[in-house]
Amino acid sequence: MKLPTRPPTQAKHWSEIPPNRLLEVLDIVREPTVGGQYLHWDQLRHRQPPPGLSTEEWWIGVKFLRSGQAKAIPLLDRHGEPFSFNLADPIPERLHEIDLRAGGAVQMPQPVVNRENRNTYIVRSLMEEAITSSQLEGAATTREVAKEMIRQGLAPRDRSEQMILNNYHTMERIIQLKDEPLSQELVLELHRMVTDKALDNNTAAGRFRHPDERCVVGDDYGEVYHVPPDADELPGRMAAMIEFANNKSPAYFIHPVLRSILLHFWLAYDHPFVDGNGRTARALFYWSMLKHHYWLFEFISISRILLKAPIKYGRAFLHTETDENDLTYFLIHQLDVIDASINELYKYIEYKSDQIRSLEQQLGGMLTLNHRQRDLISHALRHPGFLYSIKSHQTSHSVVYQTARTDLLDLESRGYLTRWTVGNTYYFRPADDLAEKLKTPRT
After folding, report:
1. Model confidence pLDDT, tens digit, residues 66-88
2. Under 8 Å CB-to-CB from 236, ≥6 apart: which residues?
3. What pLDDT does 106 receive?
4. Does domain 364-438 have CATH number 1.10.10.10?
5. 357-382: buried (b, 16+ CB within 10 Å) or exposed (e) per residue?
6. Of these four, 134, 193, 225, 437, which has the most CB atoms within 10 Å of its CB?
C-alpha cells in the first residue's frame, strides 16, 4: 500500500494567501466535500479545480470549511495534537439509516426476531466475524475448515485456527459484557482472549507492550505506516479512552455509532499491545454498539466487508493521520462498511428464507421438521458428503446437548441421515437418496 501524499499545511496557506483572495476562494468553494465525496489531498490534487482557482487554492477553501466545523475529541497524536472530525455529508444520512435499520424498535425479518431461529443467526455471525477478523490479521485457513473446527469443538491445529477460535469465544463474551462499563481490566481481558496461545511470546497476552518492545505498523518491504505513542504513555491514554467509551467525555454529544467507530480508531492508533490490536479494536467496536442498544450487531460481521477491501481499510487510517488528524475519513469509511454489512445480513436472510420455502414446496418431508432440522437438511442437500455430529449441531444452533441429539436421531429414524459410531461419538451423513425420501412426508 502506497502512503498518501501529505497535504500542504494550513499554517503555510493561511500566511501565503491575501485576505481578499481568501474571500474570493470561499465565494467559489461552498462545501467541504467535492461532488459529495470527502476527498483527501492525495485525491483532490488529481481533479480539475473550479474555474478561477488553482489546485492549492481549492484545497485551502475546502480545508477552511472543514476546520470551521471540526469537533475535537480527547485523543491526541504522539506529538500532542488533537484528533477531530466534522459531520460532513454523507455522515448524517448514514447515521439515520443505521438508527432505522439496526437499533431501537427496528422491524426485522421474522427469521431473526423469531426466538426459534435467533440463536442460529447469532452463531453464524459469530463464526463469520471470528474467521474474517482473523484473516484480516493474517490467519491462513478456509472458512469451511474453520467453521467445522468450531462446530465440532475440535482443538486448533495451528496459530491461524487458534486465532479464529479465540475470536469466536471473544465475540461470545462481548454479548455477555454489553451492559458492563468499559474498564482497563475489560480491555485487557478482551486482548487476552483474542491472543491466547497465538503470540510468539504468550506472556504478552492481556498486558500493554513494554518500552523495549518496538511496535510499528508497516509492510514486508520496510515501509512504515504508523508509529504508535510511547509505551510509557499507555496507562494515561487508556484511561482517557475508557472515559470516552463510557460517555464521560467530551462535553458535547457524539452519536453512539460515531463514538463506537472512534473507539475502534483510538485503540488501533494507540496500538497498546505487541499484537492483536486490530482484533481488539474491532471487539471494542462491537461492545460499544451493543452497549448502545444496536442489537442487530449480534448478527452482523463488519470484518467480512473489511476483508473484501483491506487496502481501503488501511487507507482510511492513513488519510486521517496524514491530514492533520481528520477522523472524518475513517468515519465515512466505517459507516460505508456498516451499511454494507447490514445489506449483506438482509440479503442472507432473504436467501435463506427463499431457500427453505422452495424446499418445503418441492419436498413435502420438510414440513414435518423443526427449524433446526430444516436448516441441516437444507445444508445436507447442498453438501451430500458432509459429516454432522451432535456437537456440531449443538454449536450451530446454540442448543443443549439433548436437544441436538434428539434432532439428529429423529432425522436418522426418518431415513434422512445414516449414523455410525466412532468410540463414544455419533456421526451422521446425509442419506444417498435424501431428496427422494423428502418428497414423501414421514411422521
Report:
1. 999 999 999 999 999 999 999 99
2. none
3. 53
4. yes
5. eebbeebebbeebeebbbbbbbebbe
6. 134
